[in-house]
Amino acid sequence: MPRRFNVAGPCKPDIHYMLPAAARVPLARPLVADQNYFVIHAPRQSGKTTAMTNLAQELTASGDYVAVLVSVEVGAAFNDDPGAAELAILDEWQRAISARLAPDLQPPPWPAARPGARIGRALQMWAEAAPRPLVLFIDEIDALQNATLISVLRQLRTGYFDRPRSFPWSVVLIGLRDVRDYKVASGGSDRLNTASPFNIKTESLTLGDFSAGDVAALYGQHTAETGQRFTPEAVALAYALTLGQPWLVNALARRAVMEVAADPALVITPEHIQTAKELLIQRQDTHLDSLAERLREPRVRRVIEPILTGGSLSDVPQDDIRFLVDLGLCRFDGAGGLVIANPIYREVLPRVLAYTTTASLPHISPTWLKPTGSLDIDKLLTAFLAFWRQHGQPLLGSVHYHEVAAQLVLMAFLHRVVNGNGTLDREYAIGTRRIDLCLRYGGPQPVTLGIELKVWRDGEDDPLPEGLAQLDAYLDGLGLPSGWLVIFDRRSGQPPIAKRTAAEPAATPAGRTITLIRA
Fold it and tell me: Can you name the CATH fold of 212-283?
């Protein structure tokens, strides 16, 4: 049976397509060799556990070390009871070690010790009994919180000075965040904001995403085993959509080969990858769902909302920005600006934020369709104006991100329009003061509509001149002769939405006749 693309848990080389995992963190092996304690942090489902499991296996197989990956996640059920957490953790370690190491490399029975010292004593006894230097990879470290987290970190720090004879040669902490962002309930903060309980760390490393060549190599494994080929254009599109995020790279391919083009005789094309992307976003699989949950956290909102509105990050704390980068929701582009991490996440975030609004939409008859099933732009405009006049005001209150509420309500309406027969792509970024939408609708006569969204706020000039120029540039990129400019007037003291919503023709600086909608 051929291997498959993995989207759940660590990769196993016998059943999953995978790249050489340990090579993704080339500094890890030298750090181990120098007896260092260090941190590996990267977003969820980016391959941390797979890479470090493989490195542990390689170190043990070399004959130079006793190395194993263990988890402390079971201790999270006892975050305010360190003694109970220690017992659960050590019991889980014993189970994992017995399955992963040869009998002559396993530890002696865990010694009796007082609560708060059990893990340190267990590691001391094992290091002293081990026939080779002991290397421990501790996974899910940031699942621990509060008193339990502090206790475990301090035990590791205390034993560090007795390495390697009476404590592990090297310890690697693996999690989503760096040490200073581990969660504790103390001092008026929900984070450590310091590395002091583990100030013995030498480095804090992260895993890079796949390169374009890595994606081609991974997909090539599927071709080698099944004969099903990805065109170079399909591979390039997969990389462009994911920017190499490992879970997304695997998930796109899995959808493509198992659902969109399940017959191995079919060649995977860019059209198959696009369809797989839509399925992935619509179904919000586990990984995407877990990212979406983060959007309600205040420090996540402080970063994401200005990006969505095209505003400024001037008042956002540096720690919040770093946290979003560590989570993998954002990245720094080539010019040093903060952007959403990849195009798929850029699609997911507004859809998630508009989910409640979409669910709250009333039944809307598709009056925007021609008898042939094609989209009629004029009828779509009439339908939107009627919808906005009647439902815009109450629906604004259904959006958690108030600064971008009007834009999200419009997107929810347009999603109801495309409804499986088209796509709605978005472009937004810090400092642009706008959101660009591209609605593509299929049918006998495919239609593409470019839409520019602007907001008029208190103390600002009318954004019409800027919006017309920006829409010109956007339509140039799409190769379209016309489009919509929507200006949401969010200034205080304005007439009700039902009275001020209207549409009229307008001319852009390049001479295009476009539809101006003031809402």
Answer: Helicase, Ruva Protein; domain 3 (1.10.8)
